[in-house]
Amino acid sequence: MVFWARHPTPRVQDWNFTLEKEVAENTILRASYIGNHADKLEQFDSYNNATPTYIWYVTTGLPLPKGEYSGVALRPYDQTVYGTLAEMRMTGWSNFNGLSLEAERRYSRGYGFQLFYNMGNAFRAGGKYPRGNSTVQGVNEFLPGAVPTDYDERVRSLYYLRDTDIPKHRVRWNWIADLPFGKGKLLGRNAGGVLES
Predict the structure, then answer these.
(1) Hey, which residues does 16 pair with through a beta bridge?
(2) How far is CA 141 from CA 50, 67, 96, 159, 175, in A?
(3) Residue 60 placed within a domain
(4) Domain, as residue range, for 27
(5) Per-residue confidence at 131, pLDDT binned at 50, 70, 90?
(6) Which residues partner with 120 through β-bridges?
(7) Number of domains forming the structure of the chain
(8) pLDDT at 5 over 70
């Protein structure tokens, strides 16, 4: 069963600082520091998951329960009625900072290009349900003392990780160039009729 607590709208704050220099005719270099912080991302506090078998044996020394309520007997919140309980909370956050380098030649004399290099560090806790680090496991799913009992400390310790969907390094480019044939070009400069374009 999933239920929602308060549901505020996620927020993002962006910032950047850019330096730009013309290094040749129609050609510039640009360097930027960019960053952002987002908060109020969704996380699911899954606090009534069953205790894993190994942890049950280590912490209680008892055999696995049998009988009518055996399917829910390993759960910490309720051992008779409820199965999985997950509260959707808007407690997640993300941070990004990076560097963007760009060389650009504006289209002139038949060609132009852009070349980009981006290096970024993206970290997040939440905001990627149903996969990734959006579901926060209860303390019963870990050995005693292995994780913080405080929800916020546990999230920071276990789930604030590099976002693997965003590459750390990225190179992109695009270009445009006139074809070398037609009127006034290297090939077919004296062409007429349909070829005169």
Answers:
(1) 34
(2) 7, 22, 30, 15, 54
(3) no
(4) 2-49+84-195
(5) low
(6) 98
(7) 1
(8) no
Place of tokens 């990076």: 98
Exposed, middle or buried: residue 187 (CB in 10 Å: 0-12, 13-18, 19+)? exposed
Token pair 């003392």 is at which residue? 145
Would you list the DSSP string of the chain?
-EEE---PPPEEEEEEEEEEEEEETTEEEEEEEEEEEEEEEEEEEETTPPPPHHHHHHHH--PPP-STTTTTTT-SS-SSS----EEEEEEEEEEEEEEEEEEEEEEETTEEEEEEEEEEEEEEES--TTSSS-EEEPGGGS-TTSS-SSHHHHHHHHH-EE-TTS-SEEEEEEEEE--SBSTTSSBSTT--GGG--
- Indicate whether 69 belongs to any domain: no
Instruction: Judge whether residue 1 has pLDDT over 90.
Output: no
Distance of CA 93 to the CA centre of its chain: 10
**pTM given for the model:** 0.73
- The amino acid occupying position 3 is F
**pLDDT above 60 for 76:** yes
Residue 22 lies in a domain: yes
The reply to whether 180 falls in a domain is yes
For residues 92 and 127, the answer to whether their CB atoms sit within 8 Å is: yes
Tell me the average pLDDT of the chain. Answer: 86
Query: How many of the other CB atoms lie within 10 Å of CB of 75?
Result: 22
